[in-house]
Design brief:
The protein is an all-alpha fold. The chain folds into two domains: 72 residues, Homeodomain-like (Arc Repressor Mutant, subunit A); 104 residues, Tetracycline Repressor, domain 2 (Orthogonal Bundle), CATH 1.10.357. The protein is 57% helix and 0% strand. The termini are far apart.
């Protein structure tokens, strides 16, 4: 394959253009933007070297001169979206700042629903991803812990967000494919569950339903999940809510 290296390499270590020859027709930003447009409109499965080349108006083999592998194309896409993170001046309240990071990441993933599928440490060290990671560490300056612990905290927060958004997106996709409304689907399932609980075979489930406080607030569930992760990193002997 044209441009394919014989040994592993990081695309960021490759010069975007050499000092010789004509100026390249496309930049990595151009290529990433084209791939992101395709993924946003048609999903990640639609992203191929052929499709991206067509979006740019060049030949597929020409694209390999810029991006040797499809994995490199994915890395360009992740880096482009990582550049959408707002990097603010940390407030000094590490919990508040990490909650803000998490909410922003969730919103970003909803803008680009293919992102959870590409959340991998493999793509975590691109230029924009490194800036994002440095920002998270700055948000944790007031956190009393080693850098190893801080990296764990960031990874766990990102894991909660990725899992939560992945479930949200999967539910939304499933609902779109149903010939009836989500409300109708939920009503049927709740009725069935209620009949099973009322049978007496599941006393603990019945007790749980008795103390049910009403419809589930999904926004509150998201916030509570994050708060509990952060509670686990609070210094021992302190009030996690403080």
């Amino acid at each position: 394959m044209a441009g394919r290296a014989d040994v592993p390499e990081v695309i960021w270590s490759r010069p975007e253009r050499t000092g010789r020859g004509p100026r390249p027709a496309y930049t990595r930003a151009d290529i990433a933007a084209a791939a992101v447009r395709i993924a946003d409109a048609q999903g990640l499965d639609a992203v191929s070297m052929r499709h991206v080349a067509a979006e740019l108006g060049c030949g597929t083999m020409s694209l390999y001169n810029y991006v040797p592998r499809k994995e490199d194309l994915y890395e360009l896409m992740v880096d482009a979206i990582s550049g959408e993170h707002e990097l603010w001046e940390p407030s000094g309240d590490w919990r508040a700042d990490m909650l803000r990071v998490a909410r922003q990441t969730r919103a970003l993933m909803h803008r680009h629903p293919w992102m959870p599928a590409l959340m991998s440490p493999v793509y975590g060290f691109s230029p924009n991803a490194l800036r994002y990671l440095e920002h998270c560490l700055a948000c944790l300056d007031s956190f009393e812990g080693t850098y190893g612990t801080k990296f764990q905290l960031i990874a766990m927060v990102n894991g909660v967000v990725t899992t939560y958004v992945g479930n949200e997106l999967a539910t939304a996709e499933r609902t779109r494919s149903l010939p009836w409304s989500e409300e109708q689907e939920n009503a049927v399932r709740i009725a069935y569950l209620g009949s099973q609980v009322a049978s007496g075979a599941y006393p603990r489930m019945a007790a749980a339903f008795m103390e049910d406080s009403g419809p589930i607030d999904l926004e509150a569930v998201f916030e509570q999940a994050l708060e509990r992760v952060l509670d686990g990193f609070a210094p021992r002997g302190t009030d996690p809510s403080g």
